[in-house]
Amino acid sequence: MIITGMQKLSLIDYPEHIACVIFTRGCNLRCPYCHNPELVDPDRYPDEDMPVSIFWQFLENRKRFLDGVCITGGEPTLQKDIEDFTAKIRSMGFKIKLDTNGSKPEVLEKLLKKNLLDYVAMDIKVPLTRYKTVMDFHEDPSCIGESIDILENSNIAHEFRTTVVPGIHSCEDMDIIGGLVKETDLFFIQNFRPSKHLQPYMEELSGFPKAMLEKFRDILVKYVKHVYIRD
């Protein structure tokens, strides 16, 4: 498992749980507004990754203080040993939340079947037909739809979410995305925030105004029972 960094304590990344967050290196998408470019762009990878042994020792020392572990990235399902990794976390008594872009449905399904996940947060970037042009995704984007179906047909707690960016997302996009997740109960609209990004020109943008976020929400509630805005 290639761990680039760790947040030792989070009260917001894993709903209703106290968790640590680990960041894995590598991603198969190139979202221009990605706010973790050092995990995605090989030219920006840190000089050293965190030894996994340090993570295991940290968990051993936090058994009385943490409820779970949030695994994010990058894209964690690209890690070849994610099954063994999550199994060890489970054996230590921690709950596991996975953040994923949904591009590896076969990995997601295997982890679910082996009861190695407790919560999944899946990003739906754009309508599936736009993944290749916006995200520079070189695989068949139908895999995203497969992961959506896997989660919707599972008993695991999960959420879908879309980070909305001016110039990339529209009301039509929200309507299409809503149709993709119409069997789910929980969706988050996340407003774009200026910071460091994969593409520097994104730093010149601002997020959507509140009125537009609410318009997106009004579209999505036609499909999803609970829709919330993270601004």
Give a quick summary of the entry.
With 231 residues, this protein is an alpha/beta fold. It has eight helices and eight strands.
Question: What can you tell me about this protein's structure?
Answer:
- The chain is α/β, with parallel strands linked by helices.
- It has eight helices and eight strands, in the order E-E-H-H-E-H-E-H-E-H-H-E-H-E-H-E.
- The chain has one domain (3-230): TIM Barrel (Alpha-Beta Barrel).
- 30% of the residues lie in helices and 21% in strands.
- It has an eight-stranded mixed beta sheet with strand order 1-2-3-4-5-6-7-8, with helices on one face.
- Strand 3 (68-72), helix 3 and strand 4 form a beta-alpha-beta unit.
- Helix 4 (105-113) packs parallel to helix 6 (142-152).
Strand order of the largest sheet: 1-2-3-4-5-6-7-8
The best one-word shape is globular
- Topology as H/E string? EEHHEHEHEHHEHEHE
Q: Can you name the CATH architecture?
A: Alpha-Beta Barrel
Rg, nearest Å: 17 Å
Please report the number of helical segments. Answer: 8
User: What is the name of the CATH class?
Assistant: Alpha Beta
Mean pLDDT: 95
Show the helix and strand layout.
Blueprint lengths: L2 E8 L8 E6 L12 H4 L11 H10 L6 E5 L9 H10 L3 E6 L4 H9 L5 E5 L7 H4 L7 H11 L4 E8 L6 H10 L5 E6 L18 H11 L5 E5 L1
Parallel strand pairs: 2-3, 3-4, 4-5, 5-6, 6-7, 7-8
Antiparallel strand pairs: 1-2
Helix pairs in contact: 4-6, 7-8
Fill in the keyword field for this structure.
TIM Barrel; eight-stranded mixed β-sheet; alpha/beta; 231 residues
